[in-house]
Design brief:
This protein has five helices and six strands. Strands 1, 2, 3, 4, 5 and 6 form a six-stranded mixed β-sheet that branches. It starts with a helix and ends in a 6-residue tail after the last helix. Strand 1, helix 2 (51-68) and strand 2 form a beta-alpha-beta unit. Helix content is 41%, strand content 27%. It has two domains: 1-30; 31-166, Glutaredoxin (3-Layer(aba) Sandwich). The chain is α/β, with parallel strands linked by helices.
Length: 172
């Protein structure tokens, strides 16, 4: 009884591996460099009242701007909710993200990456925050080169983020 089940599972895993390998190969075949603009939203349930519309408007504005200038937009969501389930619920309220990081509260690896390893020593710990980054992605044949991300702007607090978005979320 366990043998057919393990064979079926193996077949599903093989099929998934084939899909992801095919997808990667198809994306890396052309030679091109793309500039990416990445918006990282850091927040948690209860501290970002009013952010649902602001974040959704920000995503739309940055999508339009980057498309008009032959760049790519990536939306990252980081929830400081202590639980994975709570973080997923929190970020779902803000609409779709391309990438998310949830669980772990202040020790979440993305929180440490964007706020620093000594929380409160060098950057504001006020939440919500929005960090704008840019990087270049060069795809040449089977090779993928991703440059380090460069911070181009940071907005702290609902008012500062909202004011920037209401101005059309202009890129620096």
């Amino acid at each position: 009884m366990s043998r057919p089940r393990s064979l079926a599972l193996g077949g599903v895993l093989f099929a998934l591996a084939g899909i992801s390998a095919t997808s990667f190969h198809a994306r890396t075949t052309p030679s091109a460099t793309t500039r990416q603009i990445i918006a990282v939203y850091l927040g948690t349930e209860g501290t970002d009242a009013g952010m649902v519309t602001i974040v959704r408007d920000m995503k739309a504005a940055l999508s339009h701007q980057t498309a008009a200038t032959n760049r790519e937009f990536i939306a990252r969501g980081v929830s400081l909710d202590p639980s994975v389930d709570g973080g997923i619920r929190h970020l779902a309220l803000l609409g779709p993200f391309d990438e998310i990081a949830v669980g772990g509260n202040w020790t979440n690896s993305a929180v440490i990456r964007y706020l620093g390893g000594d929380i409160g020593a060098t950057r504001s710990t006020a939440i919500p925050q929005l960090v704008l980054l840019e990087r270049d992605v060069n795809q040449a044949g089977e090779r993928l080169q991703v440059s380090p991300e460069r911070e181009i702007a940071r907005f702290v607090g609902t008012k500062e983020i909202g004011d920037w978005v209401h101005r059309g979320a202009p890129l620096p």
